Amino acid sequence: MSYMEKASISVRELQQNLKRVLARVERGQVIEVTRRRRPVATLAPMQAGETRSPWPDLGARTRAVFGTRVLASAGSDAVSEGRGVR
Fold this sequence. Notes:
This protein is an alpha+beta fold and 86 residues long. 38% of the residues lie in helices and 17% in strands.
């Protein structure tokens, strides 16, 4: 089987052989996933330029939500103080 042609597997087979199927996809094969003989998904290798950043500008988003506030103590400290000594 050429890795350029599309293979088809069932959801059950995918669940049972996930590592092997992902290895085939990493080698370049496109795999169609079926449920009850109907296509539900296509697994294809990522394109070379499709790298995603793990977190877009997290610092800017945090400042947008919380502003410049500085918390005096952690929430767990407040809970511990409320419980008293145990």
